[in-house]
Specification:
This protein is an alpha/beta fold. It folds into 2 domains: about 10-150, Malic enzyme, N-terminal domain (Rossmann fold, 3-Layer(aba) Sandwich); about 160-385, 3-Layer(aba) Sandwich (Rossmann fold), CATH 3.40.50. It contains 16 helices and 10 strands. The strands form 2 sheets. The protein has a 6-stranded mixed sheet with strand order 7-6-5-8-9-10. β6 (about 215-220) and β7 form a beta hairpin. α8 (about 155-175) crosses α9 (about 195-205) and α15 runs antiparallel to α16 (about 375-385). The chain is globular. The N and C termini lie far apart (about 50 Å).
């Protein structure tokens, strides 16, 4: 059986990758009186007087809602909330495995911004944080922004988790290839949620103290995003404020020529070895489309790439947001943070990069299954939150 068939067999066998467990005994009359009536009345009275006490008396302080509308699931597109459940379950499993955080899938049967925002507000009391997941752009930007006053961290992982890991990988790739980070010329393909967040982080837009990359040209399915295009939505118009400083036009291959870095968050099979040869010597390739990268590593190396990362676990340098989100939420929850700030995101990226002291072309970021990474990221985020 291939990996897809084996995965179906696993899901049929376990019927859900997560579940609930009891932390207390419920075996005797005394157990019942402590866990439920009459004893449970006292924690309720305490929380009614002091809402912050919920973090120490209930599951709230270590519980995250993974909220999705199923509109942008992996590389599958708008498959809806029911079909999104396996991915959100998987995300919950990663929260538990790497950060010991209890997370639960909340897959909403609506793709209307107002309804998503209202629903999250209604369910927020029981959760310590909200992880927005697989909500398509540009709606995801508005949903996240409107929930920042919720009083608990709200974090769209497809945007910021991906961007944080990309920054960490690029810091080490620049170090490996002897490049000045701020002088990099970057071409990106994909102007959705992840692409916009990556561009903002690399350019330092909204990130005080960041070291910005000199130049980023972003492309969508119609080529470079430039000022003469009349088909740009509001999000892409905003992109022009901090990208494409030379206002270049043309398709992806046109603007790729001479670039130091290619970052792909789009679709598979777009580039060849010949295309990589048009880039600057020893280019950096982060081809993160799933399940098929924009270019396979072997092909990129044939074209002269110095280092290649993908989103896949079967190749070196997996650029995977599992390196970011467990530690980010663990640190934010421990600090009692009300938001995940730009400084916390930068701290996570720099901590990730520092985990690899001597980068090689097969090791520019930690391995996705390195269990110690979440604790390191959490420590950096906690410190930034306190500062």
């Amino acid at each position: 059986m291939n990996v897809y068939e084996r995965s179906v067999a696993l899901h049929e066998q376990v019927r859900g990758k997560i579940g609930t467990l009891l932390k207390v005994r419920v075996e005797s009359q005394e157990d019942l009186s402590l866990a439920y009536s009459p004893g449970v009345a006292e924690p309720c009275r305490i929380i009614a007087k002091d809402p912050a006490a919920a973090n120490r008396l209930t599951l709230k302080g270590n519980t995250v809602a993974i909220v999705s509308d199923g509109s942008a699931v992996l590389g599958l597109g708008n498959i809806g909330p029911l079909a999104a459940i396996p991915v959100m379950e998987g995300k919950a499993a990663l929260f538990k495995r790497f950060a010991d955080i209890d997370a639960f899938p909340i897959c909403l049967d609506t793709q209307i911004v107002d309804e998503i925002v209202e629903t999250v507000r209604r369910i927020a009391p029981v959760f310590g944080g909200i992880n927005l997941e697989d909500i398509s752009a540009p709606r995801c930007f508005e949903v996240e922004e409107r929930l920042q006053d919720l009083g608990i961290p709200v974090f769209h992982d497809d945007q910021h988790g991906t961007a944080i890991v990309v920054l960490a990988a690029l810091i080490n790739a620049a170090k490996l290839t002897g490049r000045d980070f701020s002088s990099l010329r970057v071409v990106m393909n994909g102007a959705g949620a992840a692409g916009v967040a990556i561009a903002k982080l690399l350019r330092g837009v909204g990130y005080e103290g960041a070291t910005p990359v000199r130049d980023i040209v972003m492309c969508d399915t119609k080529g470079a995003i430039h000022s003469a295009r009349i088909d740009l939505n509001a999000s892409k118009i905003e992109i022009l404020a901090y990208t494409n400083i030379e206002d270049e036009s043309g398709d992806l291959l046109d603007v790729l020529a001479g670039a130091d870095v290619f970052i792909g968050v789009s679709s598979g099979g777009l580039l060849s070895a010949g295309d990589i040869r048009t880039m600057a010597p020893n280019p950096i390739i982060l081809a993160m489309a799933n399940p098929e990268p924009e270019i396979m590593p072997e092909e990129a190396y044939k074209g002269g790439a110095a280092v290649v990362g993908t989103g896949r676990s079967d190749f070196p340098n997996q650029v995977n947001n599992v390196l970011a989100f467990p530690g980010i939420f663990k640190g934010a929850l421990a600090a009692g943070a009300k938001q995940i700030t730009p400084k916390m995101k930068l701290a996570a990226a720099y901590a990730l990069a520092a985990c690899v002291e001597t980068p090689t072309n097969r090791h520019i970021i930690p391995h996705a299954l390195d269990a110690g990474i979440a604790g390191i990221v959490a420590g950096a985020v906690h410190k930034a939150a306190q500062a």
